Structures are given as structure tokens and as C-alpha cells.
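Contributing new records

If you add data, match the layout below exactly. Sequence lines come first and carry their own label; structure lines follow with theirs. Keep one chain per record. Anything else will be rejected by the validation script.
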Amino acid sequence: MTALEHDQQRFDTSFEIDLGDEPDPGRAPVYVDVVTRDHERRPIIPATLRGVDNVKAAGRRAAGRAGHTLAYHAVRSPLYIVLAAFWALVGVGRLVGRQLRWWWVLEQHALRQDAATRNDDAAWLALHREARSARLWRGSVLGAELVAVVAAGLALYLVAPWWVQAVAVAVVVPVLARVGRPVGKPIVSAAVVTPRFNTGSEVVVDLPYGARFADVVKAKTSIASGLDVTDFQVFLTADKTSERRHRLFVADVNPLGVPAGRSPLLDCRPRSVWRSFPLGLDERGRRVLVDLLWHSYLVGAQPRKGKTFTARAIALFAALDPFTKLFIVDGKNSPDWRKFALVAERMIYGVAANRDGDPVDDLLGVLRLFVKHIEAVNDQLSTLPISECPEGKLTEQLARDPRYPDLRVWVLVMEEFQVYFETVDQEANKEVAQLLARILAQGPSAGVILLSSSQKPSGVGAGDVGRLFNRYRDNHDVRFALRCGNRIVSEAVLGGDAYAEGYDASSLPVGPEFRGIGYLYGLTDDTPLVRTYLADAEDAERILLAARRHREAAGTLSGMAAGEDVARVVRDPLADARGVFYAGEARISWPELAARLGDRLPEHYAEVTPDAVSALLRGLGVPGKSVRDPKWFEKGVGQGCTLDAIDAAAAKRAVSA
């Protein structure tokens, strides 16, 4: 589910610009503050304290702010004194009232009333006697307190010097005033006001009977003109209770012109795909959080409007979860996704065959692997006890349990996926379409996250391929549309109902300052206009390097990122065997090793037997070892090998080579 939470931001920026004479060309600029992109280390000496000129400039700024604050409060000090005295009297009354309620044991009133209602004389009399006893004791306490307060007051008034009296008043009056003043109404106002981000006004509008929300959507530009604001400051939201009722929000400034800022992922901390992902800010400056699990995402837009940046930001979040497996398929073969090789299980580029193989064949292999994975997950979940797998669904605990390596969350990124529906091989097109449709339909429930992006979301393929393409596109349950070329393309991304509800991505503004802005449709009943956080190529590399370190620490780095070219023609049994050991695992039985090799590398070991694996590795210098494995051996112990033995054989081979 999407959660929208208020994220207050401080703005403390001062612009000092000389509008008079021309600046002296011989004078170097003085940098009061320096923006740094080093997100790991803070400077030893702050930028404002580096050099005499910087210290002077920072000092002048601090002194100016302090002087303004002092003057502001000095002018208003008489009013503060009057207000403090008034609310202190109110505070005295409140304290007296609290003490009287405590004295009279009012907290017991409900019990006595309940006993009276039930006609329980014994209980009522017991409570009454207890209340009388408590009142007697509490009354004596309050009497002693009153005597002490009066004595202290008289002593302070008759004996204490004036400065002690002043200190006492200065301490007691503010405390009493705080007790007396209403919550949320401070006596001392702020000298410097922090502006709220992109505020506005909202009203509920009831149209005349017979008028519809669709009529309001068509008149949006006229409404903006009548309110003397831009079209992008007017936001219309249909009401669920009536077709003639809607909410009208008018922003004070155009929110689309205010960027959301850099990605919070730049802290490079580990993330979990089981938690919400911060996508950006909505039109009111609220953070937009989205859930990746159990959903499939479609991102669509014109070229150079932020589509790839948005899809990549989502994939970066998944990369920071060391227990996910990422598969990147880049149909446009661009540099945007290359750095994901640091963490990805598989990387596929473009559609043209090259010396490394045929990308289309590689894609078919990956998609078949996904189908097999989905079936394996469902089979394994059905065999687990209810205590471990409530309701037969994948859980975060299972996805991180080393006993169940097949229950990891898999993420498939399909950048410009339409190109794989339009290759020269019609049979391949059809199989790609069928496999993707199956993964989209069955994958989310098995922990498969599908992220698709396209700049051509319609008019792809013909016949069955075209039909399957449309079904695949339309079955994504969450859509994000940035600026589209026309209304038809916007409807292809968001769905046909979106336009009738007032959402048309082709009407979004054009310009470099408006990149990364789009409608998030289908996740909840609300459809926020989101300004996405920015992570450029340098930021992405920084995040992916951290993601790789997290995977290495967790022992989950695998696939191409770990140096395993699973599509190689010549296999390396030593490297393959080593690659299926779990983190911290020292030994493995031959049957378990054969099963894992068959699951992980089916193109080479699909039909391999334990005896064949044993003979293969023994021939490469790996001796057999007695190991414990109740899963495969009736007596609990049988033959296998150790990780140290595999490493030793590999090292010996490297020396001899």
C-alpha cells in the first residue's frame, strides 16, 4: 500500500546579490557554504570555517541573525510579560483543579457507580470506606502542601532580597504559564519563520444535480483561469460518495517546478523489499512511499523525460536488499544499466547477436528459469508447516532463511521491453510474449517483482504477439506515466479509465526542469502527481558499490556479479560446485551438490547424478569426505566433499596452469 507522510524540510538559504555597481573583477568570491557530494565522510573543518574570509562571512551572517532575533523579541517583550502573567493565573487554576480531583478520589467514581448500578451494596460500601480513607490521607497531604506554599510565599515576600524574588518569579511564572496556555499556542513567537513546502487550499465542491466529475475534468483549464493560477496548480479528486462531488486543491505555487531532491538511497544503507520505497514527493510536498512486493510496475514516457531514471531508482532500492536476485534486461542496450553488473544475477543487452551470444536466446533462457522458479517456490511453500508458512504465503523470514535459498525474492527489470516483441524471429517473439504473460500472472504471489518500462507502449506486434503484448502491458497493476506524446499513449500506460478520472500524462509540462514528474496510478485510490527523487549515473554507481558490499557481507553475491558466467559454453565444475555452497557452509553431500547444480545451472547439469558429480570432482582432485546429511541419507551420514578441498583443487590447477 502507498503511504503519504508529511516530510517537513528546513530552508535556510540566503541570497545576497549586489544590484548596484559592477563587481570588482579583481576580487575573488567568498564561499559561505559549499555543497559536497561526499555522502560517507563529513569534513573535519566545516566549509564555513575554512579561511579567514569564510569565517568572517559566516560570523557576519550568524551575528545578523542573532541581532534580528534579539530585536524581534525585545520589541515584543511587554506583550510576552502580559501573556505569561495571564496564562500563569490560568495555570494556577488548572493545578488547583487537578489537586482537588486527586483529593476527592474521582478515579474511583466509575467503580462506585458500577456497584450502585448492579445493586451490590457490599462492593459499594467497601469502595466508599476506601474512598473516605484515601480522602482523609490525601487531604492531610494537600493541607501540608498549602501550609508550605503559603510559608514559602510569605518568607519570599517579607525576608528575601529583591533579586531572589525576581529569580523566583522568573522561574515560577513561565512554568505556570506553560501549564495554563492552550496546547499549540506558544507565548513566544518565532523570529524566523520556516516556510511550509508548497502549501495550498482544498475545498469539497458539490456540483448541481445532473453535473458530473467528468465535466469538471474537461473544464480544468477554465477553473485555473478563473482562480488566476496555472493549470498545474489545480488538482481534482473524485469523491467516492457521489458523482457530483469532488475535492479541489489549489497549490500556492506550481509544485512541478520544485524538484524533490536527491535520492535518500544515497545513505547506502541496506534496504528490504519488504519495506516501502521512497519514490518522491507529491504535489503537496508529502513523501510518496510504494510497496514493491506483490506488485508489477509499468513505467512509460517519451524519451528523455525520466523513464529510465525512475525505473533505475526502483531497481536500486531492490539492489540494496542483499537477499534479492536481480535480472536486468536492457532492450535499448544503453549505458544506463551497465553498473548493475556489480550485483545482477544476469545481464542481457539489446537484441542483436554478438560474440557473446544471442540476447534473445539468453532472454528466453532467463524467462524459462523464472517460470521454473515460480513453480519451485509454490511447490516448496505448499510443503512447509503452517508455523513457518502461515496461509501458504512467502514471508520475509522465509526469504532470508539460509535453509530455503530458493525462496529469495527475484526482480526482473525489462527496459524497453517492446523490442523483444518485435524481433525478426516471430517464434521467439511469441514465446517471449507467452513467458512474460505467465510470469506477470503468477510471479507476484511467488515473490517475483516485475518492473517494465517502455517509450512505445502501444502498436507493437501483430496477431497473437500483439494481443499478448497488450495483455502483458495492461496486466501491470501499478503504472507510472511521465510526460507522454499524446493522450493515446498516456491511456496505454495508465489505462483507459485514467483519463476519465482526470489523469492525462500528455498534459504534463515540457522542459528540462520538469523531468521525473509523473502520475502514479493503481497502487491506491489516490493518484498522486509525483516528483521523483534523483539518482544520476554517479549516484547509481555509488549505491551499487554499496549494494555489492552488502551482498558480499551477507554471502549472497551470486551469478554474473560473482564472476559466474552461467551462459558459458565450457563449464568449470570446480567453480560451479563452489558457487552453490551457502554462506558459512563447509561441506556438502554428493546428492545435495547434484541437486543444487541442476537447479542453478540446468543448461549444464539438468540430468546430472550424484555419482557423476562425484566422479567429475574426484577426477579434478577433490577427495571424498564423510558428511552428515539426513535429507539424502537414511542413516544421516554419507559421502560428499568440503569447500576447502574444492578451493585446494582450484588453487593447484591455477599453479600448474
